[in-house]
Amino acid sequence: MTWDIIFVISVVGLMMIGLILEVARPDLIVFTALVVLLLSGIITPDQALQGFANEGMMTVALLFVIAGAIQRSGIFNRLLTSVLGRKGKGQLSLLRMMLPVSVLSAFLNNTPIVATLTPVVRKWCEDHGISPSKFLIPLSYATILGGMITIMGTSTTLVVHGLLLKNNAEGFSFFQLAIVGIPTTIIGILYLVSIGYKLLPRRTGEARNEENNTKDYLAELVVEANYPFLNQTVEQAGLRQLSGLFLIEIIRETERISPVKSSSLIKQGDRLIFTGDVSTIAELQNTKGLSLDPAHDISIEDMINGNNQVIEVVISHHSSLIGKTVKHVNFRSKYDGAVIAVHRHRERIHGKIGNIILRPGDTLLILAGSDFLVRQDIMNDFYVVTPVKSPFISKSHIQKGWLTLGTLLLMILLVSFQVISMFKAMCLEVILLLILRIVTIAEAQRSLQFNVLLIIASAFGVGAAIKASGTADWIASGLIHFGQPLGTLAILFIIYLLTNIFTELITNNAAAVMMFPIAMSVAHSLGLSEVALAVIITIAASASFVTPIGYQTNLIVYGPGGYRFKDYFKVGVPLSFLVMVTTVLIVKFVWIG
């Protein structure tokens, strides 16, 4: 083992620890690792920058624009509502949901599918007396399984495809992964509608639990005639910097002021609604002219009117809010919303809302103003996971959605018959969307998830360091030494397991990029097909079922489904085993023999 290998393993190890402990945003952690490897001389500037111009990474960027256009059209909602039907029949309805969702996910990014359909599924379940926890994990898993069918099903597939092209290999054909993807999807769906359905818990989501426990985090005070700050602003009254409490709404007869600004005036008879650590409300009760109203208990329903609504959102992995406090980001003015409560791992975080440092997967209950859903950063920072009064979707929006799907289908046919490459087809598709005015330049820019793209591009450089330093060959020789006495099949299982463990702990794309040079080194040493090992890496990096943190879609449904960490483990471990065995056996039979 050389010093270069020791250094690379140390940097990658620290990067993984940082990702697991969430010390910063994932894109910053991976990019920092890339910079360290560049400055150390392990890789050249060309090697460090190769990911930023990789065909697979650029294709992912284009797909974000296409998925955003379809998401805004609202056709997902209509499709799923009609598929589920009017009657709730448990497992039969679950099967009706999973089949079309898995097909959609084969051609579209799974994250917007789950983010868009989660509130639709929740509302349907509530309307039919079915626990949403029976449907939301299967919704996430169905998109993961379906994404394994085609080259455009997941960003991971496109990334590995780009790595193959960079490695002077042919890359994947459009439906090549279907040899593995279709059997694993069928087996996975059958498992989830039978054994998996029985293993899934019956729970309500966090927002529903909060509606039943509003006394724990909402408090109401009435402004009386002797209040010394009558007709003065919230700032002047000292209600902006309270210990443990946050003023989120003022109810004045039929008028509701929310979110509350520092310049909002306080008048006699106002009902002041606070959230946070309500045990500290005694301090305000002692203030002259403020009193609790014993005849009225504030509830979530009291806070909703024609202009605002209480909604639930999940902070995304690539949100600009990660590592910042609610107060620091100036949440109220930036999003036209006030945070009522914050949950992490199904537990409400107590204390002053403004001082809570936000993390990926945090579930926020928000009193949202009329402009909340149309603010520019909403799509990148949050997943809205509760039914909301969405902006009106016109007939033209729906027509644009179907036109987008139609042109996308044409591009898929061109790629399938090898008329043009995947990257060229997606470039043409985006140009068509712009020319036909289905999307604007501003909408295309908002759809691009730059943090995700930075992770992918940076991971390419980290993978190059693993290869250039000799780390890949060193790890590969160790794997061969350990697994060769057990046979080729055992080596395939080891590579799959390593990749799958990485993807549960860190991001799926980073796991694929790090394992790719190791897998290629194994393929060259043993004379195996490069494509065979690439398929193993692709499926293993995508098949994240065991934890809620390994994959974005699992994180989206975590809070809304009322799940605990162990629920993913209990349902996901058998599914992971089935997918692993199916994948390895098919790869061994089809590509290796």
UniProtKB/TrEMBL annotation:
Membrane topology: Multi-pass membrane protein
Subcellular location: Membrane
Transmembrane segments: 6-21, 28-44, 56-76, 97-121, 141-165, 177-200, 425-442, 448-466, 478-499, 531-551, 571-591
GO MF: monoatomic cation transmembrane transporter activity
Keyword match Manganese: no
Coiled coil: none
Domain RCK C-terminal residue range list: 206-290, 298-382
This protein's GO CC annotations: plasma membrane
InterPro entries for this protein: Cit_transptr-like_dom (IPR004680), DASS-Related_Transporters (IPR051679), Na/sul_symport_CS (IPR031312), RCK_C (IPR006037), RCK_C_sf (IPR036721)
Principal location: membrane
Keywords: Membrane, Repeat, Transmembrane, Transmembrane helix, Transport
An example Gene Ontology biological process: potassium ion transport
Domain of life: Bacteria
Name assigned to this protein: Sodium:sulfate symporter
Naturally occurring in which organism (per UniProt): Pullulanibacillus camelliae
